[in-house]
Amino acid sequence: MGVLADILAEKAVNLRELATRKLPAPPARRPLSLTRAPGEPLRLIAEIKFRSPSAGALSGVLGVGERTAAYERAGASMVSVLTDARFFGGAWENLTEARASSSLPLLCKEFVVDELQLDAARSYGADAVLIIVRCVPHARVRALVEGARARGLEPFVEITDDAEARVALDAGAMLVGVNARDLDTLVMDADRAARTLAALPKDVTSVHLSGIAKPADVERLLATSAHAALVGETLMRADDPEPLLRSLVRTARP
Questions:
Q1: Residue 29 buriedness (CB in 10 A; 0-12 / 13-18 / 19+)
Q2: Range of 140's domain?
Q3: Residue 34 lies in a domain
């Protein structure tokens, strides 16, 4: 059984608990735009997670609110908040705390398999929600994309290759992230991600996911068709992520 299968097995347990929750009233949605026109900066999405299956425990010196505020000061365009508890040290309430500390739009990064998770993402303050093609039967991707939009969430659809890209596009996805890390094996393949990104239609907002660690990585992406990139573990290893993120944001300006 791969890592993703373990995570999805845990989701069945999580859903039973989520079904018993009284969800808060959803706040107003914040505008979200990650599109990059020629000559404009690469947009950077900064992530909050306190552990990961590949890296183990990450920095906990800053709380969710402090880290979110630091990301905004450093120039992030969006903040991604992991809500999975067991594998990533997250919580639904982290979305609320991040929202209270920043004016940036929030991505709920969850392993979505059910509309209950869409309800929770919106209620706790997300503006967009991650939908991973590999997590559900292909026929369910469209239902989740449409369900997200019906709740006022932007569906951010994650893929790894051209076959999954076709599923995402057939489902109507207009914001697509290509993960350089295979979710089953955790192996990185930047070349495969670059090929998949390059093949996406030009009217789709494309995002590179995983593997951004230094300014040279951002500089490499500037020459591609990517509109944005997510920076995760590198920032979460830092007790003070602001200097590193500032340097990445400077590099992201052509």
A1: middle
A2: 8-15+40-251
A3: no
Per-residue pLDDT of 172-204, as tens digits, reads 999 999 999 888 788 889 889 999 999 999 999
Two tokens, residue 177: 């992230």
Quickly tell me which residue has 């107003």 as its tokens: 28
Q: What pTM does this model have?
A: 0.96
Q: Which two tokens stand for residue 17?
A: 């608990």
The structural domain count of the chain equals 1
> Can you tell me the distance from the alpha carbon of 218 to that of 144, in angstroms, rounded to the nearest whole number?
31
DSSP structural state of residue 135: G
Question: Is 80 exceeded by the pLDDT of residue 1?
Answer: no
86 is written with which tokens? 């067991």
CATH code of 243's domain: 3.20.20.70
Residue 25 lies in a domain: no
- Is 214 within a domain? yes
